[in-house]
């Protein structure tokens, strides 16, 4: 499929052999996308204030919303990898896609309570813009479009229901989208490794920045000693996550791993490492941000069970996602990180004593793991 005339001339894909780096427009796009992450953190925190069932319901809704938006974010990352926004026509369409993400983000707090139509409408905009650009790059995308449209239809349908039926329809949309690569196949996508690695690295940085914003929101303007200590610990925890993901020049190793693979294998590696493995990484950041935000409100008070579990689960998810990411790309597995993922839930017991105590324990756990890894790397026996 090709659009005629001037428009088609301005949206031809970049040749696969050309080097490609992330543009400022893509970073701008990611800032809008991470606003949806902020909304998910708020949705999770709001669930802590409800009855006993509210935290579980809030966590389920976060997972469902994240499931559908992450699919289309990844679609746009693949899109700009093939059709970079270097010309006015492309940029206008990318900006229109950003508007769709903004509409979705604003609708997230009420997506299951009357705002489902607005969310689905924003999603439809994103799907149509994505299709319009991607069809110019590869005819293979024709196989993706029906899955995206059916997923959007499920979201529109869910808007007319509530409770279990709505959740089941959302779940069906997530499953349909996530399994679609196995029905579509991965042939026909010639992806630029450097761009894909850089794009997701920047996304993780922006998401970690959102977790730092949660520190300020959780403090509510207070500057007492306990709040300041908790704020510094929250920053230290985010810094440990940064170090785990970026601290060992892993982006270079990831890029080389992708460049060594032939085209079809490279596409599968990118799907495994940058779509599936980054799901627990990003959900983990959302959960940690929700926990830190709650801890800053009353750092010396005992955590309720829900935020204590959420913050520990966030660390477990992040470290497990990091381990999966490394495994897919055949990078060093770093077993200590897997041990940290297993050990993080033990800090829940400290959280039931004091939110500050659990936060300190998680920082100590990750800090010890990172220091031990560095010591092993510098050991003459290694």
UniProtKB/TrEMBL annotation:
The chain crosses the membrane at residues 27-45, 57-79, 91-111, 117-135, 142-161, 167-185, 201-220, 226-248, 269-292, 304-325, 346-372. Keywords: Membrane, Transmembrane, Transmembrane helix. It comes from Acrocarpospora corrugata. It comes from the Bacteria. It holds the Pfam family LtrA. This is Low temperature requirement protein A.
């Amino acid at each position: 499929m090709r659009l005629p005339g001037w428009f088609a001339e301005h949206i031809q894909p970049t040749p696969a052999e050309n080097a490609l780096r992330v543009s400022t427009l893509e970073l701008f796009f990611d800032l809008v996308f991470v606003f949806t992450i902020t909304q998910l953190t708020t949705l999770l925190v709001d669930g802590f204030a409800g009855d006993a069932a509210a935290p579980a319901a809030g966590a389920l809704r976060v997972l469902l919303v994240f499931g559908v938006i992450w699919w289309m974010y990844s679609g746009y990352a693949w899109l700009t990898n093939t059709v970079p926004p270097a010309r006015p026509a492309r940029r206008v369409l990318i900006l229109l896609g950003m508007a769709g993400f903004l509409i979705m983000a604003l609708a997230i707090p009420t997506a299951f309570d009357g705002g489902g139509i607005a969310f689905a409408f924003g999603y439809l905009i994103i799907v149509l813009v994505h299709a319009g650009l991607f069809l110019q790059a590869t005819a293979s995308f024709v196989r993706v479009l029906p899955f995206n449209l059916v997923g959007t239809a499920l979201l529109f349908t869910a808007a007319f229901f509530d409770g279990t039926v709505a959740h089941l329809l959302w779940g069906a949309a997530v499953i349909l989208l996530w399994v679609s690569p196995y029905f579509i196949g991965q042939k026909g996508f010639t992806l630029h490794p450097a761009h894909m690695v850089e794009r997701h690295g920047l996304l993780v940085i922006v998401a970690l920045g959102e977790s730092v914003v949660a520190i300020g929101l959780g403090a509510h303007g207070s500057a007492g000693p306990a709040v300041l200590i908790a704020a510094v610990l929250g920053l230290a925890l985010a810094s440990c996550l940064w170090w785990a993901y970026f601290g060992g020049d892993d982006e270079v190793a990831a890029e080389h791993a992708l460049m060594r693979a032939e085209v079809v294998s490279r596409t599968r590696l990118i799907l495994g490492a940058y779509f599936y493995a980054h799901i627990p990484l990003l959900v983990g950041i959302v959960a940690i941000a929700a926990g830190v935000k709650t801890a800053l409100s009353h750092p010396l008070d005992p955590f309720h069970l829900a935020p204590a579990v959420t913050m520990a689960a966030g660390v477990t998810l992040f470290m497990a996602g990091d381990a999966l990411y490394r495994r897919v790309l055949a990078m060093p597995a770093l077993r200590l990180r897997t041990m940290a993922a297993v050990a993080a839930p033990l800090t829940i017991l400290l959280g039931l004593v004091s939110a500050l105590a659990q936060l300190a324990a998680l920082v100590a756990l990750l800090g010890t793991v990172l220091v031990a890894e560095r010591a092993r790397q510098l050991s003459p026996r290694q």
